[in-house]
């Protein structure tokens, strides 16, 4: 074979390789484009769920706020009930002290001991 024939064969092979590479690239680009369109379609289909998710989140936040306020109210009521119980206990103790002071059979001397007391 002559040199010209070899050059023509090499050029034809290089052109064929370039065409094949171009076709493969185009095919890959087309597949990527189709995949991107599929992703866009799925995103569009899920777009309707986004406002519902936001609504659900806002409802959950509102419920949490109501629960927090209720917990604060319950804690406040518990503190108030504890104060009332402490006050009632103090009144009870005061009544017992008064009864001990009035009762002649109870020794209320300064040493802190009591004689016959009627306390439970």
TrEMBL record:
It comes from Nocardioides zhouii. The chain crosses the membrane at residues 6-25. Residues 29-80, 90-108 have a biased composition (Basic and acidic residues). It comes from the Bacteria. Residues 110-120 have a biased composition (Polar residues). Residues 29-120 are annotated as: Disordered. Keywords: Membrane, Transmembrane, Transmembrane helix. This is Uncharacterized protein.
